[in-house]
Structures are given as C-alpha cells and as structure tokens.
Amino acid sequence: MDEELDKNEIPVYDYCYYDLTEDGDYITNPEFKFDKFFSQAEKTAVLIIDPWIDNPFDEVNKQVEKIISDYILSIAQHAIEKEMMVFIISNKPGLEEYNSNIDTWLQKLIDEQKAELLVHDEFNCPDKLCV
C-alpha cells in the first residue's frame, strides 16, 4: 500500500484465511490479509450510532470513551478528510436521565458542521416500518 492514493481512495484491508491466486484458485494465506482500495468516498457515509458517555454504569462509560478516543475519532476524522458524510445518531438530549450525552470531540465535529447529528426520536417513518 505504498502507492500514491487518489484523493478519494481509502486504503482498506480484507482479512481472510484464504488468498485468491491470479488464476482464481484459493490458497492458504499465512498473513490473512488482502490490501484493497475503496474509491467511492463521495457515495459513502460513516454512521456513529449511540456514542453515549452518560450510561448509568461508570465502567461502561470508561469503555465507550476508550473506544471513541482509540478508534471512532480517527475514523471520523479520516472520513471528513475524504469528504465523506459523517452522521452521529443519538437520543435527544434532556429527554432521559442518561444515554443522550455524546463525547465532547464528537460534539465539536457537530458544532463545526463537520458531522451531522440525527436524533432517534425525530425520524419519520411509515407506520408499517416503525415498531
């Protein structure tokens, strides 16, 4: 993956126990990894669903904060750099005592209009699809 990437190409990896040879056969792949490029960033959105940091259980909040800081923020930032849409889906703040506050860095992306907040309670859908 040392090649120069096109502006909208995103390096991705596909992990598998088998590798596909040029003639279409499968062989055991000791590295379990294929390098690929995804190049439809303009047609792709990243959805960050329920990144709550106000769960009633402190241990869960610590785990969520670690996942957000270690993984989700870098994914969101990379998506923004590639001009992908980023949606953060959560509960409407203030309706419940918990499970509505999101990470401050994710909130900053919303405030800077780099990501859009979608609220579960505000989705309109046909009666047959809503439970």
Tell me the overall shape.
elongated
Q: Rg, please? A: 19 Å
Instruction: Quickly give the structural class.
Output: alpha/beta
Sheet with most strands: strand arrangement: 5-6-7
Q: How far is the first residue's CA from the last residue's CA?
A: 45 Å
Query: What is the N-to-C succession of helices and strands?
Result: EEEEEHEHE
Helices and strands, with pairings:
Layout: E1 10-15, E2 18-20, E3 26-28, E4 33-38, E5 45-49, H1 58-81, E6 85-90, H2 104-111, E7 116-119
Parallel strand pairs: 5-6, 6-7
Antiparallel strand pairs: 1-4, 2-3
Core attributes:
131 residues; alpha/beta; 2 helices
Q: How would you characterize this protein structure?
A:
There is one protein chain. The chain is of the alpha/beta class and 131 residues long. Helices cover 24% and strands 25% of the residues. It has helices at 58-81, 104-111; strands at residues 10-15, 18-20, 26-28, 33-38, 45-49, 85-90, 116-119. The strands form 3 sheets. Strands 5-6-7 form a 3-stranded parallel β-sheet, covered by helices on one side. A two-stranded antiparallel sheet has the order 1-4. Strand 6, helix 2 and strand 7 (116-119) form a beta-alpha-beta unit.
Task: Sum this structure up briefly.
The chain has 131 residues and is α/β, with parallel strands linked by helices.
